[in-house]
Amino acid sequence: MAAPLLELSNVSTHFHSPAGRVRAVDGVSFTLEAGQTLGLVGESGSGKSVLARTIMGLLPSYAEIPEGSAISFNGQNLLTLDRKERRAISGPGIGMIFQDPMTSLNPVMKIGQQVYEGMRHHFGTSRKEGRERAVELLTEVGIPQPDVRVDQYPHQLSGGMRQRVAIAIALACEPKLLIADEPTTALDVTVQAGILDLLQREQRDRGMTMILITHDLGVVAGRCDNVAVMYAGGIVETGTTRSLFARTRMRYTQALLDSIPRLDRPPHERLKSIGGRPPNLINPPAGCRFAPRCSHRLAQCDTDMPPITSDEQDASHRFACWHPRDPDAAMQETAGGDAA
Ligand SMILES: Nc1ncnc2c1ncn2[C@@H]1O[C@H](COP(=O)(O)OP(=O)(O)OP(=O)(O)O)[C@@H](O)[C@H]1O
Ligand SMILES: [Mg+2]
To answer: Ligand 1 centre and the CA of 23: distance in Å?
Structure first.
């Protein structure tokens, strides 16, 4: 088994606000082995992007990472590095594709230059060589007429093409780890699959390690080795993609699964969404954070935080619930119309 490339241990990220401390990420731990793809999934506001920005070292000054958090990348604790050392790691170490390509691209810089800027900074690549490399990369990510596009500006490209440029920028320095934060949410459904396939191909061809962030568990199926499900700043269920789909233990994960549009459902059927709202992250509930929205909650769920437990059949499949689903009885549950 390969050594972990990335290891998070008890990582928290808090924001100071006039109303109090926002616990956006709260005690996250996981390991990611080299060459693997992890799907990081959760509802809007669950802390996915803040966690990604924490790994990248891209937090605003009013953010605080409390003592006891550790992020080890390639054997180095990123949280002990200063800004300059951290910058040296981004690019060749960790690349990121942001949620909205329009805000991550520089509107007044030619796209070619944006692709090779990182190479110039990290490797001292010449302008001429950088431009040639940019054309190659634009070709690789499926941009037609790359020798023309290289001298254009972001507004001259469609949303899908801009996202391909953002991927080319992230790949330019050949990162060991690529974090793709909802790389397709801003795009048309027909364009989404193309971008996801491109990412998957690049990940395989380059043997890259990847974190694919999405709110859609459907995106994760067939694309990720492992999945970590986030709720209210914490990871509540994690395991291999296969086990997570076949033996879903958390009602929250089940509700995310139920909200995936499926071709075998009757047309125009309303999608099941999860009732209620995520908790306030300034004063989160004392017990399970999902309890107020859970159809199976017990008294204990409101008072005690459930510990992380392993699935009986697969120890790498872990979840935090006092009253988990019984995956073996799942067929009956589905037949009974169980909606969390
Ligand atoms: N810069 C910030 N300052 C204060 N609070 C923030 C900041 N960024 C995020 N938050 C809060 O942290 C929580 C997690 O936000 P985050 O953006 O990580 O969610 P997400 O899971 O990426 O959601 P989405 O699917 O909508 O992108 C939210 O409650 C959000 O309001
Ligand atoms: Mg986000």
So the answer is: 10
145 alpha carbon – ligand 2 mean position (Å): 32
SS3 319: strand
- HSE (side-chain half, CA atoms, 13 Å) at 65: 22
Q: Which residue has the tokens 């959760």?
A: 42
How many other C-beta atoms can be found within 10 angstroms of the C-beta atom of residue 132?
16
CA–chain centroid gap for 308, Å, is 21
Q: Per residue in 47-102, pLDDT tens? A: 999 999 999 999 999 999 999 999 999 999 999 999 889 888 888 999 999 888 77
List the chain domain ranges: 1-93+209-340
Starting from the CA of residue 48, give the closest ligand. Answer: 1
Residue 281 Cβ < 6 Å to ligand 1: yes
- 107 token code pair: 């509107």
Which spans in the chain are helix H? Answer: 48-56, 83-89, 101-104, 111-123, 127-140, 146-149, 159-172, 189-206, 217-220, 241-246, 251-258, 299-303, 330-335
Fold held by 1-93+209-340? Rossmann fold (3.40.50)
DSSP state of 90: B
126 CB neighbour count, 10 Å cutoff? 11
Per-residue pLDDT tens digits for 2-24? 569 999 999 999 999 999 999 99
